[in-house]
Amino acid sequence: MRILVVSDTHRDEANLRQAILSQPSAEVVIHLGDGADEALQMKDSFPEKMFLLVRGNCDWSSTLPNEGEITLCGKHILYTHGYTYNVKYGLYNITMAARERKADIVLFGHTHDALTDYEDGLYLMNPGSLHGSRGTYGIIDLSAAGVVTNILKI
Question: Model pTM?
Fold first, then answer.
């Protein structure tokens, strides 16, 4: 199963659409906030895909949750924008929350800095910001062989 992970689109609907179209095999799109409006528009435009959405600190009028959890292909995923865990100041809080919830993968945005890492059984991913000409997004491939994470440029 392929998962497209995006964050911080900041009204850049064109880049969000391009990322979705560039990954036709992605069955799931996870938007990590700061772009709730365009994420909801894309959800309507691509009804064949599962969309998982959370609000970011700039999604002021959004009623989306701050975080979510789902198990896909046997892997427990915690996803959030990250501001409630102060990710701009380090990953300790979000890593501890993921471990407390027995997550295999934790996804967050907010910093606009792309990151993919693996630490003692926990995959961490920040897809960076999809906004603008230097936008980035993440891909997670889940299979019987394991988990593969990548960061790609738009």
Answer: 0.97
Give 27's contacts (C-beta < 8 A, 6+ positions apart).
Answer: 1, 2, 3, 49, 50
Average pLDDT of span 48-76: 97
- Using CA atoms, how far apart are residues 97 and 94, in angstroms rounded to an integer? 5
For 87-116, give one letter per residue: b (16+ CB within 10 A) or e.
Answer: beeebeebbebbeeeebbbbbbbbbbebbb
Cα–Cα distance measured from residue 7 to residue 115, given in angstroms and rounded to the nearest whole number? 12
Q: How far apart are CA 52 and CA 55, in angstroms?
A: 11
The pLDDT value recorded for residue 5 is 98
Residue 20 confidence class, pLDDT cut points 50, 70, 90: very high
Which whole-number Å values give the CA distances from 32 to 36, 120, 143, in the listed order? 9, 24, 23
Q: What is the 3-state secondary structure (H, E, C) of 48-73?
A: CCEEEECCCCCCCCCCCCCEEEEEEC
What mean pLDDT do residues 67-75 have? 98
> How close are the terminal C-alpha atoms of the chain, in Å?
21
Whether the CB-CB separation of 144 and 21 falls below 8 Å is answered with no
Report all structural domains of the chain as residue ranges with CATH numbers, in order of start.
Answer: 2-153 (3.60.21.10)
